[in-house]
Amino acid sequence: MATKPAETNSIQGYQLCKRYEHAIQLLGKRWTGLILDTLMAGPRRFCEMTAAVEGLSDRVLSDRLRELEDEGIIERVVYPQIPVRVEYRLTEKGYDLKPVVDDIHEWAEKWIPLPGTLSGYAAENAGS
Q1: Beta-carbon contacts of residue 21 (< 8 Å; ≥ 6 apart)
Q2: Backbone angles phi, psi at 127, to 5 degrees
Q3: Please, what is the Cα angle at 95 between 64 and 99, to 5 degrees?
Q4: Are 76 and 69 in contact (CB under 8 A)?
């Protein structure tokens, strides 16, 4: 019986960077980018984030916030008052993602059409 060769992330000398892979797996999760974009404007309370990101459930937001906190990208700040107020804000590590988020905004402006509109390429070639 033949055995399957060991799985590797290498193709003809190319080795996938483990740090990059981890970053993409973390940041590429659904809703994570939108949560980070919301926090780029400043600290937010849980309910402010669910209101800002349409379709984001409380459970998923809670999971993503915990993951981002575990990675040191955001921090949870509890204000000891009655009632207790909790805010989430980016850490220095989180704010270091700002150029990445800004670049994604620029790329989207250039290449992603708004729903119900033609893309730039499609609009240019519509009369052909």
Answers
A1: 9
A2: -85, -5
A3: 105
A4: yes
Indicate the pLDDT class of residue 24, thresholds 50, 70 and 90.
very high
Region 15-40 average pLDDT: 95
How much is the pLDDT for 15? 84
Residue partners of 63: CB distance under 8 A and separation at least 6:
none
pLDDT for residue 3? 55
pTM for the predicted model, two decimal places: 0.79
CATH ID of 19-113, from 1.10.10.10, 2.30.30.60, 3.30.2350.10, 1.10.645.10: 1.10.10.10
* Contacts (Cβ under 8 Å, ≥6 apart) of 75: 69, 88, 89, 90, 91
